[in-house]
Please model this.
Amino acid sequence: MSADYVVQGSVAVITLNNPPVNGLGMETRTAAVAALRRAEQDEAVKAVVITGAGKVFSGGADIREFNSPKALTEPTLHTLIATAENLSKPVVSAIHGVCMGGGLELSLGCHYRVAVPGAQIGLPEVKIGLVPGAGGTQRLPRVVGLEQGLNMIVSGNPVLSEKLAETKLFDKVFAQGADLVSSAVEFAGSIADVRPLPKVRNLKVDYPNSEAFLQFSRNTVKAMAGAFPAPLECVECVAAAVTMKFEDGLKYERERFLALAQTTESKALRHAFFGERAASKVPDVPSDTLTRKIEKAAVIGAGTMGGGIAMNFANAGIPVTMLETKQEALDKGLATIRKNYENTVKKGKLSPEKAGQRIGLITGTLSYEDIAQADIVIEAVFEDLNVKETVFRQLDATMKPGAILASNTSTLDLDKIAAFTKRPQDVIGLHFFSPANVMKLLEIVRGKETGKDVLATALALSKKIKKTGVVSGVCDGFIGNRMVEQYLRQAFFLLDEGVLPEQIDKAIEKFGFAMGPFRMSDLAGNDIGWYIRKRRYLEQPDLEYSKVPDLLCEQGRFGQKTGAGWYDYKAGDRAAYPSPVVASMIQSHVQASGGERRQVTDEEIVQRLVFALVNEGAKILEEGIALRASDIDMVYLTGYGFPLHRGGPMLYADTVGLPNVLDTMRKFARGRHGDAWTPAPLLERLAGENKGFNG
Model:
C-alpha cells in the first residue's frame, strides 16, 4: 500500500507514502480512498488527518499517467477529493514541505487545513502547459482571494505557508519547530464535533468589479504567454469560479484540462520536464556511485568563457582560482567579473552583500602551483589542440592525485586531450555555453577512459551550479555543435540561391528560435566558424560548403565585435541592420558561381534548417553519442534557443511525423547541394515503422 493508516485516540491518521514526493498515482489514490472509507466506518474514529510521509505532503498528480489509462482508472484524483469532501467526519489536511498541484487540490477538498512554516504551496500545472484539473482553479480563489489565486495559478510559482496564514486556506499555521502530526491530531480533536462541516466549494469569490480585473488579467497574460495557450486558459478557469456555479466551474475546468493535455505545447513542456530528469541518468553509472568532493576549483583562462565558468562556482559558494599567463589578461578578466556582478546588483537581482561574497570567492594567479590543490580544474583556452596539449601536460604534472581535469573544448577530440596525461580516467569534457554564467546547458563529454565516479561527480556538479547536464560521447562537435554545423551549412547553402540573411533569420525566429543563424553567428564571432571550416577543408576535403561565409570573413566582417558581420552594427547599438554590402556580395557570388536566384518560402527555410538538425541528431543517436533522443532535445532547448513550445528538434520531428520528414528531405535531395540530404539509417528505419524518436 502507498498510504498508511493508524488511529491515535479518536483520530485516524492517513499518511501518503509514495517516495520521493508522495505523488498521487493510482496505487496511492486507491490506498488513500480505502483508508478514508475505513475511517468512515470505524465508530471509534471522530476525525481524520491526512499528511505525507518524509519531508513533503504531496508533489501532486503523477504526470507520467497523463494521456494514459491509469489517469482515468478509478479512483481518480477527483474521486479521492470527493471522498474526503463528502466524509461525514471532519478531514484535516496536515501540510509540510511541499504541497503542490493535486496535493493542494486534495487539501482544498478537505474540511480543514493546517501547516507548519516553510511549506511550499502552489499549483504549477501551467508550467507543463495545463490548467489545474481537479478543482484547483475553482477552490483556490475561494480561500486566498481572486487576485492572489489567479497570480498563483497563472505563474505556477509556490508561496510559503506562513505568507498565506491569514487567508482562509489555513485554519492554523503552527509555530516553527512544532510536531506536525501530533499538533494536527490535537487540532482534529478540537473540531471533531463541529457541524456543519465547512467546505471550500460553499464559499464565494468576492472581489469588487471582478470583471474589470479579469479583463485586465486577460490582456496582461495574453501579451506574456507567447505561443503557450495554458496561461490564458488559467484566467478563463478562474473567471469561471467567479461567474459560474461551483459544479459548472468544475466541469469547465476539466474540459480545458483535457483539451490542453492534447496540445503540442503541453506535450513539449512535459517532454522537457521528463527530459531534464532523464539526462542525469546514465545506464552504466548507478545512482549510488561515490562522487569526488568538489570544495575548491580552478579555471585556466580568464577570458569571457573562463570568467563565466568561474562565476558559476562562486555562485554555488565554491572558491575558484583563475589562472592566466599574463597579469594584464588576469586583471581584465577579474575586472569583467566584478562589473558583471555590479550590473546584477544594479538590476536588483542580487544584494550588494552577496555580490561581495561571490567576488571574494574568485582569485587570480599566474602560477600553476597555486591551483595544484584544486579538486577540479577546467581548461578554457583557445580552441587549438596544440594549445590544449601544453595546458594538459602542465596540469598532469601539477595537479594533486584525484583532481578532475576538465576541458571546455567545443569540438576537439577529448580522448586525444586525455592522452596528453598519465591519468585519462580523471579527464572529462565540461562544455559550457556562452555566456557561461547565464546559459543553462552543460555538455558533459565522456571519454573512453573517463572514470564512472568522475562522470557521476560532473553530473552532481552540474546540478550544484544550476546547469542542465547532458552526457555526450566523443565526436567532432559532440551533440550540439556537430548538429549546428549541418544547420549552418543549410543556412549558408540558401545564400548560394540568393536568399538574404535577414529573410532566413526572420523565418527561423518566427518559427520560435530565440535568434536566427546569422544573428547568432555575428554574436559568437564569424571567425570561429571560419577557423573550424579551415580545419574541415583539410580533414574532410569532400565535404561541401558554401563559399559565402569565407568571403565575408576575408573582408574582416567577424560580427558584433568588429561592428560588421552578416549585418551592420552601430556603436553602442546591438541591433542588427541589413547590410547592402552583404546583399551585393551574395548577388555577385550567385552570378559568379553560375547559379540562379530563386524565391524561397519561409516554410522551406525552416524545413531545411530544422530537418538538417534532425537528420544529424538521428546519426548521433544511432552512434550512441547521445544516450536518448530527449538528451538531444535538452541540448537544443537549453543551449541553442530551440523553441520550448516545440519540444526540441527530435520531438518536433515526431510531431511532424518521421515519414513526412523523410519525404521532405528526399525532395531537397533532388535540388542544389542535394548530397547533404542522405537520410540517417535510423530515421529511415523509424519512418518505415511509423515510429518516432521518442517511442
Residues 10 and 45 are 5 Å apart (CA to CA). The mean pLDDT is 96. The first helix runs from residue 26 to 41.
